């Protein structure tokens, strides 16, 4: 079969090949998803529901080797370094940081400890120090408006004008209605607005 005939055959069967490849991808994805969701690792023994962590039978004594610490010994016997406290307590060790080589330790039969939760440190509260009060000088645009009309200056909006004219920002609607503003959001410097009283 020549390459040309092969490609022609492939082109004719393109939809069938696409369906088959799509099915294979879905099967692979499904198997991967099931394995991921099951979470079981091969060789892992999961205790039945309702059983507690019971201590395993441990040898009663351990002779400390060079370089060992209570943490490493605890990991060796309990699969958790957090039981080093139990080792120090049972053996009445004055300095748990330094265990002499050749020391014979009693290995207690206790439940292995695990880390279940931790407390997040809360950030310290900010320290607020009193400072001198700043004096605000009122500018011309912040003074009360008492007249029946007002000429808009740069930075004005209907809310600010209503607050200065009536002491109530919600009166901007009346100003917009009285002046028949098509878009109350757009006012320009130099516009003269009638203020209803």
From TrEMBL:
Q: Where are the transmembrane segments?
A: 16-37
Record's keyword annotation contains Oxidoreductase: no
Superkingdom to which the source organism belongs: Bacteria
Q: Where is the LysM domain?
A: 60-107, 148-195
The reply on keyword Amino-acid biosynthesis is no
Tell me which UniProt keywords the record has, alphabetically.
Answer: Membrane, Transmembrane, Transmembrane helix
Q: What is this protein called?
A: LysM domain-containing protein
Source organism (scientific name): Candidatus Woesebacteria bacterium RIFCSPHIGHO2_01_FULL_40_22
């Amino acid at each position: 079969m020549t390459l040309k005939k092969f490609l022609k055959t492939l082109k004719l069967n393109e939809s069938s090949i696409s369906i088959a490849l799509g099915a294979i991808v879905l099967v692979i994805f499904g198997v991967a998803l099931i394995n991921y969701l099951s979470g079981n690792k091969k060789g892992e023994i999961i205790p039945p529901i309702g059983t507690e962590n019971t201590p395993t039978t441990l040898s009663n004594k351990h002779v400390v080797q060079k370089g060992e610490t209570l943490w490493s010994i605890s990991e060796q016997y309990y699969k958790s370094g957090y039981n080093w406290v139990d080792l120090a307590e049972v053996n009445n060790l004055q300095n748990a940081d330094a265990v002499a080589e050749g020391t014979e330790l009693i290995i207690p039969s206790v439940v292995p400890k695990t880390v279940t939760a931790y407390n997040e440190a809360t950030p310290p509260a900010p320290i607020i120090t009193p400072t001198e009060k700043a004096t605000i000088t009122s500018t011309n645009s912040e003074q009360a408006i008492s007249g029946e009309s007002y000429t808009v200056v740069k930075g004005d909006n209907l809310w600010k004008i209503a607050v200065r004219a009536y002491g109530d920002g919600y009166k901007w609607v009346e100003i917009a209605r009285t002046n028949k503003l098509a878009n109350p959001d757009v006012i320009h410097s130099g516009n003269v607005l009638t203020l209803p009283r």
